[in-house]
Amino acid sequence: MFLRTLKLTFAIVISLAFAQLAFAQEVRPIVESLGVEAGGSVLRIDGRHLARMPRLVLNGQSDPLVLLSASDHEIRAALPPMECGSYSLRVIHGTYEQELSLEIGPIGPALDEKR
User: Fold this and answer.
1) Is there a contact between 25 and 46 (Cβ–Cβ < 8 Å)?
2) How many Cβ atoms from other residues are within 10 Å of residue 99's Cβ?
3) Which of 42, 85, 99, 115 is a good FRET partner for 22, with 20 to 30 A between their CA atoms?
């Protein structure tokens, strides 16, 4: 009887573990905004279900950005000195990966520029 109860308990625990794993994999991060804080040295990502320990890779560099803080709603990372322009940013958490476009500084012609 004890062995049968132990097997049943083990089966329930394993089933719950797989159910939690499946649920955790279904929740995908939602990025609501992406930008650079004043001074240009801090990247800020706001959203929902953001990873607490993501890897942020800028323009395919081998070293990820240094995280300053990360929560379910906000990620902040240190940016290296950069020129104005468009950059690709990959947000990686486990097997989930998202490619974003980061714009730094004024992009395109000035509004008062005559053609």
Assistant:
1) no
2) 9
3) 99
98 falls within a domain: yes
**C-alpha R_g of the chain:** 21
CATH of the domain at 75: 2.60.40.10
- Judge if pTM exceeds 0.70: no
pLDDT digits (tens, 9 = 90+) for 46-88: 998 887 778 999 998 889 999 999 999 999 999 998 888 899 9
Which tokens belong to 62?
Answer: 């081998």
Q: What is the pLDDT of residues 21-53, one digit of tens each?
A: 555 555 778 889 998 887 889 999 999 888 777
Element (H, E) at 17: helix 2-26
Count up the domains in the chain and report the number.
Answer: 1
